[in-house]
Amino acid sequence: xxxxxxxxxxxxVQEKEAVTLDCTYDTSDQSYGLFWYKQPSSGEMIFLIYQxxxxxxxxxEGRYSLNFQKARxxxxxxxxxxxxxxxxxxxxxxxxxxxRRALTFGSGTRLQVxx
Amino acid sequence: xxxVTQTPKFRILKIGQSMTLxxxxxxxxxxxxxxxxxxxxxxxxxxxxxxxxxxxxxxxPNGYNVSRSTTEDFxxxxxxxxxxxxxxYFCASSYSEIGRDTQYFGPGTRLTVL
Lengths: 115, 114
Description:
The structure holds two protein chains of two kinds.
Chain A: E1 3-5, E2 10-14, E3 19-21, E4 24-26, E5 32-39, E6 46-52, E7 60-61, E8 64-69, E9 74-79, E10 88-96, E11 103-105, E12 109-114
Parallel strand pairs in A: 2-12
Antiparallel strand pairs in A: 1-4, 3-9, 5-6, 5-10, 7-8, 8-9, 10-11, 10-12
Chain B: E1 4-7, E2 10-13, E3 19-25, E4 31-37, E5 43-51, E6 54-57, E7 64-66, E8 76-78, E9 87-94, E10 104-105, E11 109-113
Parallel strand pairs in B: 2-11
Antiparallel strand pairs in B: 1-3, 3-8, 4-5, 4-9, 5-6, 7-8, 9-10, 9-11
């Protein structure tokens, strides 16, 4: 069974600073996908970034990058130059490669960006 | 494209009532999913479908039923609502091909059972 662990229930960061949100995972699959989603207070789930287990380079999407360390089974999200609009819940998720290919989510990290 | 749409946005049910949560996607995705999110938690899979006519259970299927008669629609039925079903329900869809299978979520339905 797959498991995602996010050990930081809440984080604070000053505007314009960088912040790292931690995510570790557990799986017996050799092939898998890792995702980060943002959930603002309005409630919708917004896709941020994806990393495949065989991707050699860390994924980047604008101010978001994923620090993927396969041997340590970690997939941390780095947000550079934080903005007030980044205040939200952030969820790490893993997707099964075969079968139902559903997402397994962590419990989330609430990020608050302070001016 | 409207993406994934869900109705209603909010609903209050009394214990024992039934209702159907609607979900429609216009991206021609094969895979569709229903998740629930309890307060302060991540999402958990209720049911999923890999195509029209094919559905299967996820982690927390008890008290729910689904059907998938078309590619676009994937309704979730709650029978005999219970307070434990108070949650936010998200529908999602994705392509089946690896590399294109990011899941896209609907805006959610907030359900309260009293």
